[in-house]
Amino acid sequence: MGASISSRALMTAAAALLLASCGSSSPTAPSGITPQTGLQVLRVTLTSPCPRTEPSVALAGLLYSHVQVRQSGNEWIATSIEGAGDVEVRLTRAGASPSGALHLTGTITGTARHLPELLPTVPAWESQMNFGSDRRTVLDAFSFAIPANPGSTGVDGLGTGTVAVSTSAGTLCSGTQFSFSLSPKV
Question: Which end of the chain, N or C, is less packed with Cβ atoms under 10 Å?
Answer without folding.
Answer: N
